[in-house]
Amino acid sequence: MFMNQSLRYWGTALVLLPAAGASAQTHGKPVDAKMLRNAASDATEWVTYGRDYSETRYSPLRQINASNLSRLGLTTVFPMTALGAMEATPLVHDGIMYVSHSYGIVFAFDLHTGEKIWEYDPKVAYEVQQHGCCGVVNRGVALYQGRVYVGAMDGRLIALDAKTGKVDWEAQTTPTDNAYTSTGAPRVIKGKVVIGNGGAEYAVRGFFSAYDAVTGKLAWKFYTVPGDPSKPVENPALTKAMKTWNGDWWKMGGGGTVWDSFAYDPAADLMYVGTGNGGPWDRDYRSPGGGDNLYLSSILAVRPDTGKLVWYYQTTPGDSWDYTAVQQITLLDLKIGGRTRKVLVQAPKNGFFYVLDRITGELLSAEPYGHITWAKGIDMKTGRPIENEGARYPAGTAQPVSPGPGGVHNWHPMSWNPDTGLVYIPGSNSTMVYSATPNFAYKKGSWNSGSSITAPNRPEMPFIGPPAVPGQNGFLSAWDPVANKERWRVTYGPTFNGGTVTTAGNLVFEGTADGHMVAYSADKGEKLWEMNLQERNMASPITYEFDGKQYIAILGGRASNPAAGLRGGAGAAGKDQSGPGPKLFIFALDGKKSVEEALPRK
Description:
Elements: H1 33-37, E1 58-59, E2 72-79, E3 91-93, E4 96-100, E5 106-110, E6 115-120, E7 142-144, E8 147-151, E9 156-161, E10 167-172, E11 187-189, E12 192-195, E13 207-212, E14 218-223, H2 237-242, E15 254-255, E16 262-265, E17 270-274, E18 278-279, H3 283-286, E19 298-302, E20 309-314, E21 329-336, E22 339-346, E23 352-357, E24 363-368, E25 375-378, E26 385-387, E27 398-401, E28 415-417, E29 422-430, E30 432-436, E31 451-454, E32 472-480, E33 485-492, E34 500-503, E35 507-511, E36 516-521, E37 527-532, E38 542-546, E39 549-556, E40 583-589, H4 595-598
Parallel strand pairs: 1-34
Antiparallel strand pairs: 2-40, 3-4, 4-5, 5-6, 7-8, 8-9, 9-10, 11-12, 12-13, 13-14, 15-18, 16-17, 17-19, 19-20, 21-22, 22-23, 23-24, 25-26, 27-30, 28-29, 29-32, 30-31, 32-33, 34-35, 35-36, 36-37, 38-39, 39-40
């Protein structure tokens, strides 16, 4: 689950400016099951993490388009301070925007009055961030029946009253005696709140679980890796998985955490879940003697009522490189081989773009979308990768491998445009030297990858396949999932940029790592518009309509003084901020042309 491990200071100071237009939209009732099922057809709102159950991040809005992009500017900037990185996707319903950030702090804003309605802080203890793999982050909330659901970093699932922000119920979803964290956005499916967790590097046993959305009662739990073989399995699917493990893996947890990626097909009544890497990373330590280690780095199709496994596909059997399959899963209906197929697509860390029949799990295609040296390709008869000899790194060896543990695609959401037939993937090419940690010994609650990674700075090292990629090079790829090839690519920056959203206006919006908001033509990848937001580390944009006007919103930035306001214990994040810091940026036609103009006046 390797990402940027730096901790970033935020806080909770808020300023809102009135949105353009003076009247709130009133759908008149809370988000319900029908709204969630029909979210794709409602262009005005953004009521679930991926905008719809298929996680397409496509909007039918077209008021903002290539002909008027020159008029696009900022209407509002909401300054915030807190500890952590910006990764959340805001939600919008009935004139209210719900925003989460570090620890699971949540804000509700009235888009009509421009006033903060409420703020909730779960008061996560400072110690929890010490075993967070990759920073103090939160990727979003869920809405249902008048409640806002958020996963606090300490593993609590919390249901808040959408009107007041007061706690309705909370459930501890993870054991408190091990180093679990919760950073992903929950989803509501068939009256249940589904949530996963992280912590594979700290040697925990991965699972995801479902809770009754009204009462908070646990409905079911699905363990992604088997436990102690001397005890009964918790799920029939684990009987098969048990045969693919060796040694005493369960004493180190095994990994397989589900820290992102859920999608749902109401017609098939199947929920799709991506699972994470092993713990430790190095299979020789985790499962001596080999084995596929099910269900690590896999796509699972389960029944949302019961958590029963219907089918699975493992993208990286016996993973030793932190090649998770937790990256976004998107559901599409594509014409393949002369007939329409119900498929799911995923661009996981390992660098292959997968197209699977989402009803049966049949592999339809798998082609590289980034720089890959660990495997030559995917065997279409078996569905297994054709590993390059030497890609694994036995004790005493060091091997440069592409991609590195950040993967070709990480948490940054991709988007799908049915008008162009393209998927827009924020990616990054990298090469890292993997080696087994000498004299590795498991230590509970500590980092237990069993692997060391360094930059490939020795030219004499034997490379597998193509030469190493210098540094880490970010790109935006427009991928054709039917033709199985890239249609266009934009290269930039040393690392990952933010997620993408695409619209019927033939546009793709993306925030860059160096703090720019950019719009490209969806069909050709031409840069049409750009604004310097003067902040680094952008999250994922959304678009919605308010009072008849289309808006684009994105979180981005970080505090300039990471040492200020760190939590010394339970309680709100520090309130002071020196210099630039995280902000919520909102754009519309005829908005301000600079951040300074849009900032609130003191």
